[in-house]
Specification:
Layout (H helix, E strand, L loop, with lengths): L3 E7 L3 H12 L6 E4 L12 H4 L24 E3 L8 H5 L1 H17 L12 H13 L2 E4 L3 E3 L2 H17 L3 E3 L3 E8 L3 E9 L2 E12 L6 H11 L3 E2 L2 E11 H10 L4 E4 L8 E8 L2 E6 L5 E6 L8 E11 L7 H15 L5 E4 H6 L5 H6 L10 E2 L8 H17 L9 E8 L4 E2 L12 E3 L10 H22 L1
Parallel strand pairs: 1-2, 1-9, 2-6, 9-21, 17-18
Antiparallel strand pairs: 3-5, 4-12, 7-8, 8-9, 10-20, 11-16, 11-19, 12-13, 13-16, 14-15, 17-19
Helix pairs in contact: 1-13, 4-13, 5-12
Length: 471
């Protein structure tokens, strides 16, 4: 590792690695360093598959390492600009869709499945949309390219090797402590923790692309250095699991049912997210011992269940403006009730005002795919407003997907999506600090693999414009 680079990228998630890819594809002569807190993708392993329980690794291999949480996610690429965050509001819807289409071709070059889920079945889609409208929900029709958890790792390994073979330097197991900013005006480098020692590196351009896992760190960075930003959104919800038979029509027609509603009485935005037909509920761990629930969907390995998230969006202004801390407290309380485990409860038990007992799960048609989840009472930790929104949304979903609100439907908690306070940027992704850029989910502008990747492509193009202009 040198002491100076032209471009330093903090975080080897989709936004950061696609920045480097786009620069390479345009024959950059700039030196590029990617700094990653976790391991190379080929060294990322979760011991839970062998031990049967979470070992609370630090950092968590599920969320940290090359390609970020994408390597162990269900690996779905949303191919419509309406899904994946608010980047289209910054750069324009047509341009966002153009970037998505282009980025998709890169994934195909690295081995993504050519099959697209959610195409065709037009009459069935109309019927589902009709049912959604009657239930007060909006159906977002979004084609999906499903990588699959195990295939995603292969694709990102190919990308990792491409970057390193073409001159991009990547350092793993290295944490960024801070960025160097002169008088709150110009960023000129970073401070890293390398083997327990602080090292200072200089750079013309610094890109922060730390993903949802780095949301809290970037929030502190913005506060410490007066980087212009505004309060962001935090999503609080549950992971729902039902039998495949319940979701069969939606799984076949849409693959992923992206439904949005604003249920009474609070009218908060509530949405489905990350639907996994034949998938598995999983656990992720953050550095502060916070355990959260997620879902995986493999290409080959299938379960008898479908899981998806139901998320309630929370926005705060005055006097409270710490959405990440708020969600963390909910997660910590839920973890405490589950003795460090993810909590699971049957929907019918929630309506009956009782906890779920392990013996009741054994007797149910829906067998949990997260075996070490603790049967209990998620309502003891979930705020009333969020829980009411979730219950009413599930009831509305039942009108679209009959049986979704059955007694045995499982709800896992906590499902939390952290996004940084939205960093203020122009259309070329310049922040209020010269030479500093913030990308992906850590920027507050994107949510998910494809939009974060597309934002990285845009960053790569912006840097190439500067390079070409400089001659």
């Amino acid at each position: 590792m040198k002491k100076s680079y032209d471009v330093i990228i903090i975080g080897a998630g989709p936004a950061g690695i696609f920045t480097a890819i786009e620069m390479l594809r345009n024959h950059t002569e700039k030196s590029i360093l990617i700094v990653e807190k976790g391991k190379a993708i080929e060294k990322r392993t979760c011991p839970k598959s062998a031990t049967g329980k979470c070992m609370n690794c630090k950092p968590c291999a599920i969320t940290t390492g090359f390609s970020g949480a994408g390597a162990f996610s269900d690996g779905k690429l949303s191919l419509c600009y309406e899904v994946g965050g608010d980047l289209p509001a910054l750069i324009g819807e047509d341009f966002a869709q153009e970037l998505i289409n282009y980025t998709d071709t890169i994934y195909l070059e690295f081995g993504a499945d050519t099959h697209i889920e959610g195409l065709g079945h037009e009459e069935e889609k109309k019927e589902i949309r009709r049912s959604a409208i009657k239930a007060g929900l909006k159906l977002v029709d979004c084609p999906i390219r499903h990588l699959g958890t195990e295939k995603a790792q292969q694709i990102y390994f190919a990308i990792e090797q491409y970057l390193m073979n073409n001159g991009v330097e990547i350092v793993f197991n290295t944490e960024c402590l801070d960025v160097l900013i002169d008088g709150n005006e110009t960023c000129h480098g970073v401070i890293l923790n390398v083997g327990g020692k602080e090292e200072t590196l200089s750079a013309e351009e610094v890109i922060v692309a730390t993903g949802r896992r780095g949301a809290e760190w970037l929030e502190k960075l913005c506060a410490d250095h007066n980087i212009a930003h505004q309060p962001g959104t935090v999503d609080i919800g549950v992971r729902v699991e039902v039998r495949n038979e319940i979701m069969e029509r939606v799984n076949t027609v849409l693959y992923e049912s992206k439904l949005v509603g604003y249920p009474a009485p609070f009218k908060n935005k509530v949405r489905t997210f990350c639907q996994n037909p034949g998938g598995f509920v999983s656990q992720e761990n953050y550095d502060n011992n916070l355990a959260v629930v997620n879902g995986h969907s493999y290409k080959d390995l299938k379960s008898t269940n479908t899981n998806l998230a139901i998320l309630v969006s929370h926005n705060f202004s005055t006097p409270f403006n710490q959405p990440i801390a708020y969600a963390q407290k909910i997660g910590e309380l839920t973890n405490m009730l589950g003795a460090g485990h993810i909590l699971v409860q049957r929907f019918g038990d929630i309506l009956d005002g009782k906890r779920t007992w392990p013996k009741e799960l054994v007797q149910s048609n829906v067998k949990p795919t997260l075996p070490d989840a603790e049967a209990g009472d998620i309502t003891a930790a979930m705020p009333y407003r969020a829980m009411t929104n979730i219950i009413n949304f599930i009831k509305a979903m039942d009108e679209v997907v009959p049986g979704f609100a059955s007694y045995e439907t499982l709800l896992y908690s906590p499902e939390l999506k952290f996004y940084s306070n939205r960093v203020k940027m122009d259309k070329e992704l310049n922040t209020s600090v010269k030479g500093l850029h913030c990308l992906g989910d850590s920027s507050g502008w994107t949510r998910g693999l494809m939009m974060a990747s597309a934002m990285g492509v845009l960053m790569g193009r912006t840097l190439m414009k500067k390079e070409n202009a400089a001659g």
